[in-house]
Design goal:
Layout: E1 10-11, E2 18-22, H1 28-41, E3 48-51, E4 54-57, E5 61-66, E6 72-74, E7 77-79, H2 86-99, E8 105-111, E9 118-121, E10 134-140, E11 143-149, E12 152-161, E13 166-170, H3 173-176, E14 177-181, E15 191-197
Antiparallel strand pairs: 1-2, 2-13, 3-4, 5-8, 6-7, 8-15, 9-14, 10-13, 10-15, 11-12, 11-14
Bound molecules: 2-oxoglutaric acid and fe (ii) ion.
């Protein structure tokens, strides 16, 4: 249910996880400005992923930024970081105030339309350390975001991530739950997602 004070953080009811949703972390004006800037200025790339031995183009575009030169590897892809832009540093500072950690790295995802997606996964790569803090910012089209419990994949939780929102995942979340952005047949516009992480 949406409350009158939608700026209030919402703690998601996921067993054993610590996930907090801030629906209006950025104003609509800021979100629109950042969406346009990042859409235009980011050197988007499309890597190939291997699924059950077959190679496919990843169903979205990505870019990696970092302040310690460390690459990030997942799904057989290794990405090298670009240096933070002014806009990304501004966003990083805002997010760090709430998350109370210093992030090194930001993975950007561009979902061009409803056919772009992100399959079930947990952000549990070794270089993220035990109990990673992951701060996920969304700009542009609204998309459905789903969680499922690893120990009981029928136990799912579905929400919509709106433009300007922040989703903070902490504690045991990545150990116990997976998440995804499913494809949608709806006619949706592009969406940009930023996930701030710490790579040791
Ligand atoms: O686009 C999103 O909201 C999720 C992105 C994500 O899960 C990831 O990049 O690891
Ligand atoms: Fe993720």
């Amino acid at each position: 249910m949406s409350s009158l004070f939608s700026n209030t953080p919402q703690h998601l009811p996921l067993k054993g996880a610590t996930v907090t949703y801030f629906p209006d972390f950025f104003s609509a004006e800021e979100a629109g400005k950042y969406f346009a800037l990042l859409h235009k200025e980011t050197p988007w790339q499309q890597d190939d992923i291997k699924v059950f031995g077959k190679v496919y183009p990843q169903p979205r575009l990505t870019a990696l930024y970092g302040n310690n030169g460390k690459p990030y590897s997942y799904s057989n892809i290794t990405m090298q970081p670009h240096e933070y832009t002014f806009a990304l540093s501004e966003i990083k500072k805002r997010v760090e105030k709430i998350a109370q950690v210093s992030f090194t790295t930001c993975l950007l995802n561009l979902y061009r339309d409803g056919q772009d997606s992100n399959g079930w996964h947990a952000d549990d790569e070794n270089e993220l350390g035990e109990n990673p803090v992951i701060a996920s910012v969304s700009f542009g089209a609204e998309r459905v975001f789903k969680f499922r419990e690893k120990a009981n994949i029928k136990n799912t939780y579905k929400m919509t991530l709106n433009s300007g929102s922040l989703l903070l995942m902490q504690g045991s979340t990545q150990h116990l739950w997976q998440h995804q952005i499913p494809k949608t047949a709806k006619n949706v516009g592009p969406r940009i997602n930023l996930t701030f992480r710490i790579i040791k």
